Amino acid sequence: MPELRKDPVSGRWIIIATERAMRPTDFKSEPQSLRGGFCPFCEGNEDKTPPEIMAYRERGTQSNTKGWRIRVVPNKFPALRIEGNLNKHGEGIYDSMNGIGAHEVIIESPKHVTSLTELDNKQVEEMLWAYRDRLVDLKKDKRFIYGLLFKNVGTAAGATLEHSHSQLIVTPIVPISVMHEMNGCEEFYKYRGRCLLCDMVQQELSTGTRIVLEGDTFVAFAPYASRFPFETWILSKIHSSHFENLQKMETEELAQILRAVLLKLETSLEFPPYNYIVHTTPFVFGEIEYYHWHIEIIPRLTRVAGFEWGSGFYINTVTPENAAEFLRNVNIEKKAVVVQS
User: Fold this and answer.
1) Residue 11, by phi and psi: left (phi above 0), alpha (psi -120 to 50) or beta?
2) Catalytic member of 165, 239, 279, 292
């Protein structure tokens, strides 16, 4: 019998259609062909990208030359541009403004690696710190309201270059998906006086059936109303509304948890395309009690079709409980430590 589950954060209903389910081992990703050839993100090709905005470099090296570990550059084909004024205006019932914002690329390694899991934990930690640094810098611009960090891996997930990288798009408005989450969490807080996402963490820890990985500070679990097979969220056990308030000690564990979850997905599902997204609180808010930043990891194993687009429902063919149990049992010990030469 199919089951309807409601996501307490967004209010979205999900259909868990177990009759249509495959075994976890039956999910096969379409082969990802390596393009090869010239890569503008590799060390030595710094002049083939826009000038860097920020980089973590070895001492004595110059901007836009070799010697970097993490490099941030403007997107060559930006969705939004940083120059200009918003010029908000209306046309009858319609509202518009100039496409002002920022669109940046975080290049995660000078070497040509195609997966974040090819980096060691320290390199992933530096990547997360670069995320933080860019948010801290861009939130100073009063035109900007929200910073969305995300990663596309594989052509099915929207990636156009295989060299491991993330993106940051900063917008002058709050994205609708984040607004829905915040509204749901605020309503819960008004009624219960507690953070919904903190309660979610506590409930998942108490039941344990949807836990994928647990550390001292962070926990990874399959959400109760997962939209997609093997969808996994990472949250802090300690309430924090803004990702950019991340501390150094927290970053170390977060890097380990994030890399381990991705290793489990890659090992068991044959390197699926995926997206991950960091949902955090808009710049214009101070620390708030009702919303909690988190990372959503979405393997692209199924396709969104007419029913999903037309209804807003998602059909998930694997229960979150089965997905979490499967991922918990994936052994990644031999692959857990990778050090680049």
Assistant:
1) left
2) 165
